[in-house]
């Protein structure tokens, strides 16, 4: 089993067990298809059997892990077809949310997006991918929350997380050029939000979501 990220005592106290395992799954600290033996998880997270079982069932319900009868739990390992379907669905939902956000977002929220983008830019070359990925998630969560449709925003976040276990940021983020290109597209998104141009924003997000294909070997 993978070595999980070390956390301070304060972090340990603040996060629930399911949140700690989820953070390690999304952070790529477990390999796709890796088995999560319950006894090992108990030891890694210094927790009891009941709490670990409940946490694993919660993560299974969110499709970050899967349960194989008579064998146990393992990290989700999407097939090429499943990943294509996931991105196709995300494009449909996220472009719809973008159109809504362009007409509903407040100037205060645009300023918050600017602040997240500035933090991302300032640590692009020095921060680890866990931190960059967290900022990226904050940016997109806030953008889609601005659609004014909480159900839509929640579904988008859940689908994004389903594609993350084992990827450590995805193909695009394997190079500095890919990280820079992602940042540049975020800058363009804010410009289009300020212009209230929902159609152009939707097209930019479509391109953004499919950008990983440029980095295929």
Describe the secondary-structure layout:
Elements: H1 9-14, H2 17-26, E1 35-36, H3 38-44, H4 49-61, E2 65-68, E3 72-75, H5 80-104, H6 107-122, H7 129-145, H8 150-162, H9 176-194, H10 198-210
Antiparallel strand pairs: 1-3, 2-3
Q: Give the SSE order as H and E letters.
A: HHEHHEEHHHHHH
How would you write the strand order of the largest sheet? 1-3-2
CATH superfamily of the largest domain: GntR ligand-binding domain-like
Instruction: Specify the oligomeric state.
Output: single chain
What do we call the CATH topology of the largest domain? Four Helix Bundle (Hemerythrin (Met), subunit A)
CATH class term of the largest domain = Mainly Alpha
* Percentage of β-strand residues: under 5%
Distance between the termini: 27 Å
Largest β sheet strand count, sense and barrel closure: 3 strands, antiparallel
Give the count of helical stretches: 10
Mean pLDDT: 86
Under the CATH scheme, the architecture of the largest domain is Up-down Bundle
Structure notes:
There is one protein chain. This protein has 217 residues and is mainly alpha-helical. It has two domains: 9-75, Arc Repressor Mutant, subunit A, CATH 1.10.10; 80-215, Four Helix Bundle (Hemerythrin (Met), subunit A). 64% of the residues lie in helices and 5% in strands. A three-stranded antiparallel beta sheet has the order 1-3-2. β2 (65-68) and β3 form a beta hairpin. α5 packs antiparallel against α8 (150-162), α6 runs antiparallel to α7 (129-145) and α6 (107-122) runs antiparallel to α9. The radius of gyration is 18 Å and the shape is elongated. It starts with 8 loop residues before the first helix and ends in a 7-residue tail after the last helix. Residues 2-14 have low confidence and may be disordered.
